Amino acid sequence: MKKLLSFIIILFLFTPFSYSQHYTDKQIQVGLDKIYNFNWADGTKIFNKLIKQDPKDPRGYFYKSIIYLWYYLGNFNEAYLDTFNYLSDKTLDLANEKLKTKATAELNYLIGADYYNKSIAEARSGNYLQALWTSNQMKKYLDDAVKIKPALYDAYLGIGLYNFALSQIPSSLEWAANLVGINADKEAGLNFVKKAAQKGKLSKVDAEFYLSQIYSRVIVDHPAAKELLNKLVRRYPNNLLFVFSLAWVNYELNDINAAQKQLKEVIATKDTLYPFVVSNSYYLMGNIFYAKNLCDSAITYYKLFLKKAVNDDYKGIANLKIGLCYEMDGNRKEAVKYYENASSGNSDIDEDQYAERKKDEFLDKKLSANQIKLIRFSNLIKQNKLSAAKDSLKSFIKLPKLKNENLAEAYLYLSEISFYQKRYKESLDFAVKCIKTETSSEQWIRAYAHYFAAWDSYYLKNYLDAKLFLLQIDELDEYDFSNSLLNKIYSLQRLLPEEIKK
């Protein structure tokens, strides 16, 4: 459940929907622009002015409630949640009174949007069943809004996100979804979000951000995500979430220097309302220096992350990497201290699962020289020094008495490098060598080798082979980073020709 919640919180952090009526649209847009740029005080003033202009108009309360929802999601302070609930309930009361007089698309939209925000707050508070029910109420009102006015494109954002997120509901909650009649379609959801991003008015920025998160975290189309985020950051340079999201995408694209520059901006803000964004920036900065093989700097940022973290997410992997840094620098004694804390993270996160599994192995036995070499070679890939990494790995696989686990990992990295170089036949050859190398552990290596082999086959137009390589991943035993790989598999499956999918 935590995996779904984490995705939903990231995906739904910004939720300003509109109850469109021309004379306040401009005021609302100005207020939203202030908030998008993290100018909370001026945004609050504008929405307070709307309330003062007409205390019976639900819009002022609605937009003001969004500010407090953002505050709550930013630092989990219950006082902000209480204020959000008061303003949200006030919005519903006033909107429902107006709905009794006349059922307009705009009123249905506003009520649906308010239920949407409530579902996010409930999910964050751990009230998952209530969040499902509230999400279904949201969908009902937004559907009614679109029936009345199909060109109300802002409404498609909520409908799209409902379909996209709830299509990934965990099996433990399927019974509840069936009980409230949830029926979600991921592809339809994506198309609705795209429609809102293209044609929405007051929700256009939100739709663009959500779409960037879908591209970067589910569809795994990082260039498309970067294009959207570059646009948003140019317009709202003070928005920490936008800047951090762009840094994360650049890191995934192996442009770690650009990511480092953006993270410096987030860390320099000294923000107090969004400590999770700032703390995660320290974690990602640690990853960047780790990738640069600069262990002292990596340790510094990982320790700052552990000090400032607002929850357990990534604490396990941060401790593990601190240990690895110390050990690569020859300080086994200090490394052991951090290996011992490698199970302190969130067991629902791939990286923390990996850290917990590797903890005992690293405690029992020091890193071998070959393990250290593989870490440094893989870091060259992250630095986008592909030729240097390739040359080093080709020499590495010729070493005598090389363990199969080390050999398989080296073949995987060679396949990855060749894939980035668009040498798909060569990449496929290395992937197959990896798959054929017998190993008793590290099943994630075989899983990812199948994944690269599938992509290679796709680009070589061997679509059936691509499908078969993906199907073989399902036959593997449990392996690390499986959740991340599932999204990557989906990104390829959706591109296969229809006759092959069947």
* Secondary-structure arrangement, i.e. CATH architecture of the largest domain: Alpha Horseshoe
Q: Mind summarizing the main beta sheet?
A: none
Regarding CATH, which class of the largest domain?
Answer: Mainly Alpha
Distance between the termini: 30 Å
Category by helix and strand content = mainly alpha
The CATH H-level homologous superfamily of the largest domain = Tetratricopeptide repeat domain
Shape verdict: globular
Number of helices: 27
| Oligomer designation | single chain
CATH topology of the largest domain: Serine Threonine Protein Phosphatase 5, Tetratricopeptide repeat
**Rg from Cα:** 24 Å
Compute the number of strand runs.
0
Uncertain runs: 1-20
Question: How many distinct domains?
Answer: 3
The SSE string, one letter per element, is HHHHHHHHHHHHHHHHHHHHHHHHHHH
Detailed description of the structure:
The protein has 502 residues and is mainly α. Helix content is 75%, strand content 0%. The protein contains 27 helices and no strands. The longest helix has 24 residues. The radius of gyration is 24 Å and the shape is globular.
